[in-house]
Amino acid sequence: MDIYASDDEKAEALKTWWRENGRSVVTGIVLGGAIIFGWRYWLTHQQSTTEQAAIIYQQVQMKLTEDELTQAEDLTQTLMQSHAKTPYAAFAAMELAAEQVRADQPAAALEYLKWVAEKAKLDAQKDLARLRTVRVLTDQEEYEQALQIAQQPALAAYESLFDELQGDIYLAQGQKAEAYAAYRNALASINENDPRRTILEMKRDDVAVIDEG
């Protein structure tokens, strides 16, 4: 627009510009408003969903405390189906799995742990579910399957725990040299002040003679 034009010329030029560009401007404003509204709606929806999941998770805990396993399972299924994207679904599934192990229902426990390992949104929850899966499988003497899971990549915070479990599996199969190496790896990935060091050193030392001989 010419800055030296008269007021009438400026007004006419503005009208012309609006006729040519007004629709795109309005569309942009509408879309911008829709995006902002949509974002706020999404945040509100996410907060509401998380709050609902937290309430259901508390109910699961209560039912487990009251030894009402069937109702706890129903509530956990609700979380897994309707609130799978929240961490509460994974927490509930793992707690239910622990209760099923105590109730001597390892197959059911493994199903819930498998769901967490595959569906949880947090990597730490996935690794924790795999750790518990390995322990259940080891107790069931399913050593090959347990070892395959224990050898999968994990977060640094869980590496020592998986190495220790590998040592336990090898030891249960009488493979003491392999157990020694696994315990040694477990020790290498924790700091000197870790309270687990004493136990790991004892486990390592128990098979050290076999390895050295």
Account of the protein in words:
It is a single chain. This protein has 213 residues and is mostly helical. It folds into two domains: 8-108, no CATH class; 122-213, Tetratricopeptide repeat domain (Serine Threonine Protein Phosphatase 5, Tetratricopeptide repeat, Alpha Horseshoe). 82% of the residues lie in helices and 0% in strands. The protein has nine helices and no strands. It has helices at residues 7-65, 69-82, 87-102, 106-119, 123-139, 143-150, 156-172, 176-188, 197-212. Helix 2 runs antiparallel to helix 3 (87-102). It is elongated and about 55 Å long.
In short:
The chain is mainly α and 213 residues long. The protein is 82% helix and 0% strand.
Q: Return Rg in Å.
A: 29 Å
Number of helices: 9
Class by alpha and beta content: mainly alpha
The fraction of residues assigned to DSSP E strands is: under 5%
Shape: elongated
- Tell me the number of strands: 0
> What pattern of helices and strands is seen along the backbone?
HHHHHHHHH
Features of the shown structure:
Serine Threonine Protein Phosphatase 5, Tetratricopeptide repeat, 2 domains, 213 residues, mainly alpha, 82% helix, 9 helices, elongated
How would the blueprint of this fold be written?
Blueprint: H1 7-65, H2 69-82, H3 87-102, H4 106-119, H5 123-139, H6 143-150, H7 156-172, H8 176-188, H9 197-212
Helix pairs in contact: 1-2, 1-3, 2-3, 3-4, 4-5, 5-6, 5-7, 6-7, 7-8, 8-9
